[in-house]
Amino acid sequence: MGTLTAKAVISRKSCSDSAIVLNVTASTDITPAIQSMARSFNAQSVSENGHCIQVEVTGADSAAEAAQIDGQATTPGLPAVDVWIPDSSLWVDVARSYPVGAGAIQAVSQSVARSPLLLVTTPKVAAKTHIFDSPPTWSVLLPPSYGGPPASLGLSVDLPDPSDSSSGLASIIEVSRLLGTGPAARTAFTKFEFNSETTANFDSVAGLEVFAASTEPPLDRQAVTVASEQAVLAYDAANPKAPLEARYPTGASASLGTPELNYPYVLTTSKSLVKRAADKFDAYLQTPAARSVIRYYGFRDPGNVPDTMPGAAGLSSQPLQLASTATAAETAANLQVWEKLGLGSRDLTLIDVSPAMASPDGIGTQTIEETLTQAAARGLALFPDSTHMGLWEIGNSTSLSKPYTQLVSIGALPADYGVISRRTQLQQIIATLKPGNGTLALHDALLAAYQEMTRTYAPNYANAVLVLTAGVDTARGDMSLSDLLARLKALYNPAKKVEFVILMFGKTGNFTAMREIADATGGVAYQISNPAQIGQVFIEAIAHRMCDQGCAAP
């Protein structure tokens, strides 16, 4: 007995001194389950080539870890990750889309767990809005004008930020599939994004408690969101007297249904010994014992088998139609579109006050300038506080050497501009603009504005020149249209895109020329006859951010 004990002690010491340490980073929600299985695995003293394997598990946000792996947001000093278990293979696709990530990811094994996504609200909201009276589709998240619930319900969409959340990213993929492609679909998707409240992730008990509280006084919102089945079950267990109302979304095709978080086992080390150790832990996570642990923590096991569903949840009686898996290209395209639409705007606005603006608008009793002023006031209200904007007056010049007058410098709308904010200053100026007696050197003014925005280009913003004009060039000596187009095409840089968004008021201008000018910069032009058009034009102009140069305007 003494000899055997001594051998055991020597063996343990030797194993400890020369163990293969396998560093595993798992999605925060599944970390407790993976840590539990790692403890069981470590207790078995599994070895590889004479070395014991010691698994160490840390939790991390999946999107943040993807940015570490693909080199987009590295933090020096962090230990190397040998195995990554994100909550969704969507982030594996994102990481692989960058050269560093493609090189770091050695292999992707099968899932270690699964958790379908659910449309979620509170019983009070469900009873008041009736959005779950029948199996819901993804149209529940859409604005009323595009097939969503009636505006009278006042339903808010709380969407976990797709840039950070697998639930949010999977949701926008399904919405994109539902809307389809083409100009109308781009506009509808833009309206959907602007109609949604971008939130933190709700895939936790604490997150869902914050969401549920927002539907109670004093906020008292009618809200719906997206969360994982595991999070909903955990919330209901922690709040048995007030469970959530949750439904698996359905659809008319295989692509439209319920996406799931699939927790893939991703190998990120190239060390041969560590890779073999990782393979052994991977095999352990597929054993019946490990699968039972996964189910105990509220996840479905790799074979999509759940634990016994609580009767209060009502999930076991619902149809579950799993959506087809998104391709890497589909994931990248939707994430890119979401981020493009979410960019802050940096806009230099040019407003025409030339004599042509005093002409009747051709519709009612207003002048073109009055129509423009009303439209500009409505449009300014639509720009969020993240916008940076400046204002030039054109058409009131007596010299071709300076075909514009700067009224407000470019800066953040809510920032102080003297004793008032820049937004207020712009509102006051727009309200008092009147047609003058000067001349409009339109082409010279447009070139000067484009040169200024190109010179001061700001990354991480959508840079644009907004032009509100009658489109009537009255200055002798102004450059020709062909010269302007040639200069714009020479200045255009797709890597630092500055585009024209031109709104031509009235019918006396040359709208064909306005379109050519906008097209030369990958921009868009609209002919405005009614100030009420501005809301739709605003959404369509933002939707145009999805396009590369040459995309047809909505």
Specify the oligomeric state.
single chain
Question: How many structural domains in the coordinates?
Answer: 3
Could you name the CATH topology of the largest domain? Rossmann fold
> What is the share of helical residues?
25-40%
What count of helical segments does DSSP give?
Answer: 19
CA-based shape: elongated
Assess the beta-strand content as a share of residues. Answer: 15-25%
Strand order of the largest sheet: 2-3-1-4-12-5
Annotated CATH architecture of the largest domain:
3-Layer(aba) Sandwich
Using only CA atoms, what is the Rg? Answer: 29 Å
Class from helix and strand fractions: alpha/beta
Q: In CATH's first tier, which class of the largest domain applies?
A: Alpha Beta
Largest sheet: 6 strands, mixed
Looking at CATH, the homologous superfamily of the largest domain is von Willebrand factor, type A domain
Q: Report the mean per-residue pLDDT as an integer.
A: 90
Structure characterization notes:
The chain is an alpha/beta fold and 554 residues long. It has three domains: 2-105 and 264-296, 3-Layer(aba) Sandwich (D-Maltodextrin-Binding Protein, domain 2); 115-261 and 331-338, 3-Layer(aba) Sandwich (D-Maltodextrin-Binding Protein, domain 2); 344-546, Rossmann fold (3-Layer(aba) Sandwich). Helices cover 38% and strands 20% of the residues. It is built from 19 helices and 20 strands. The chain has helices at 2-17, 31-43, 62-69, 89-96, 99-104, 123-129, 166-179, 183-195, 205-213, 229-238, 272-284, 288-296, 328-341, 368-382, 422-432, 442-455, 481-491, 511-519, 534-543, and strands spanning 20-27, 47-48, 51-60, 83-85, 107-111, 115-121, 155-160, 196-199, 222-228, 245-247, 260-261, 264-267, 344-352, 388-394, 404-412, 416-417, 420-421, 461-469, 498-505, 524-528. The strands form four sheets. The chain has a six-stranded mixed sheet with strand order 2-3-1-4-12-5. Strands 6, 7, 8, 9, 10 and 11 form a six-stranded mixed sheet that branches. A six-stranded mixed sheet has the order 15-14-13-18-19-20, with helices on both faces. Helix 7 (166-179) crosses helix 13 (328-341). The N and C termini lie far apart (84 Å). The relative contact order is 0.10. Residues 1-14 have low confidence and may be disordered.
